Amino acid sequence: MDSINAADTAWLMVCSALVLLMTPGLAMLYGGMVRAKSALNMILMSFSALAVVTLTWIMLGYSLAFGASTWGIVGDLRQIGLVDMLDQTYGAEGHKVPMVVFVMFQLTFAVLTTSLLSGAIADRAKFGAWIVFTIVWSLIVYAPIAHWAWGFQDGQGGWIGDRLGALDFAGGTVVEINSGASALALALVLGRRIGFRRDPMRPHSLPLVLLGAGLLWFGWLGFNAGSALAADGTAALALINTQVAGAGAVLAWLVFERIRDGKATTFGAATGAIAGLVAITPACGFVTPLGALAIGVLAGVVCAWAVGLKYRMGFDDSLDVVGVHGFGGVVGMLGIGLFAATVANAAGADGLLFGGGFELLGKQVIAILGTAAFAFAMTWVIATIIDRTMGFRVSADDEVAGVDTTQHAESAYDLAGVSGGSVLGAHPVTGQR
């Protein structure tokens, strides 16, 4: 522990806190996007993942993701419960941090990714089944994919990053494509909400949506820049690229909306920001700011188009996890193959537009397809087993009544006895009767 870099350690601890804040931010975003009768349930699904995935990660998940590799597929079990890790360090020489700080940073990624999936099954999932799902999914799907991309062991680690040589700086495969493919599987297993395509199902609180999006944007700076694992030039590059891509995607989404629908909306601005941040996640440490802008603009347009696929294809991805995170992740991974430049990061590679040919782009495509296929298939199996044993979906009556009251005996807004903006019989300011 005498060899740790104090500045890098402090930086990674701050970034861990920033990324942890993203899960409450996601809870606010999702809570505002659903109808009022489901708001608390959506918020609790994210908050419960904070507790559940923390324990699964510490006990087993970290070892599966970052343990010694077995055939490039999954880590071994030598680090269960963080045994003998309290005095260990992680990182390159001169940039070492305490191992437990790295564990914590990666834990926040696992929590957020698991929470993202709740958006695909809003309004209709049993809370107990969701808890079981988060336990199993975080260990069987998330941890192996994290090992594929980030389990570096001198050519003997994960098959995507260490053996194939595909690039993923902060989670295009691990977080975004993984969550998008898994969300599609979940939506198909649980089926469509009652009233899908018929009822408007508009967000009940756009201010809450914008607050959640703002918190996510704020936390995303730590999500991406912290993935450099050091307070250095690469972290600085990731920081500015994250901001640039988010801004470019907001404007691209608004222009797309204006042309398509005749209006630019606040909801579109919030969703566009998330799309751009998603897309730059894998690329932020490998492209120039102009490359980041191009990726952000592409993500704004592609994701604005992709969110409409659920209506044309008939799957009910309630809060557009597939359209935003799945398609956004693909844009970002392919964007590396096009816009990556060694002038931005000598440890990366040159993409097609910088004279690198099709080699890197081909590797990115393989990584995309492998991640999406595994995540979709495994999530389908897990969700189907849960659905056929304990049941994953609430009854039709409970869904119509609202999962807040039927699953939690609570309501986000206590409107009982309210008339004209005040409690019946009470003064609207003093509260006196």
Quick overview:
The chain has helices at residues 6-33, 39-66, 99-116, 127-150, 159-164, 172-190, 206-225, 233-261, 266-280, 289-306, 309-313, 321-339, 359-389, 396-401, 403-408; strands at residues 69-70, 74-75, 89-90, 97-98, 418-419, 422-423. It is an all-alpha fold.
Write a structural description.
There is one protein chain. The protein has 433 residues and is mostly helical. The chain has a single domain, classed as Ammonium transporter fold (Orthogonal Bundle), CATH 1.10.3430. The protein has helices spanning 6-33, 39-66, 99-116, 127-150, 159-164, 172-190, 206-225, 233-261, 266-280, 289-306, 309-313, 321-339, 359-389, 396-401, 403-408; strands at 69-70, 74-75, 89-90, 97-98, 418-419, 422-423. Strands 1-2 form a two-stranded antiparallel sheet. The chain is globular and about 60 Å long. The protein starts with 5 loop residues before the first helix and ends in a 10-residue tail after the last strand. Mean pLDDT is 94; it is low at 419-431.
The overall number of domains is: 1
Q: Could you name the CATH homologous superfamily? A: Ammonium transporter AmtB like domains
Q: Helicity range of the residues?
A: 55-70%
Helix-strand makeup class: mainly alpha
Parts with pLDDT < 50 across at least 5 consecutive residues: 419-431
User: How big a fraction of the residues is strand?
Assistant: under 5%
Q: Which second-level CATH architecture applies?
A: Orthogonal Bundle
Total DSSP helices: 15
The N- to C-terminal Cα distance equals: 65 Å
**How would a textbook summarize the main sheet?**
2 strands, antiparallel
The CATH topology label is Ammonium transporter fold
Shape: globular
- Annotation, overall tally of beta strands: 6
What's the CATH C level? Mainly Alpha
Pattern of helices and strands? HHEEEEHHHHHHHHHHHHHEE
| Rg for CA atoms | 22 Å
Order of the strands making up the biggest sheet: 1-2
Question: Please, what is the average pLDDT?
Answer: 94
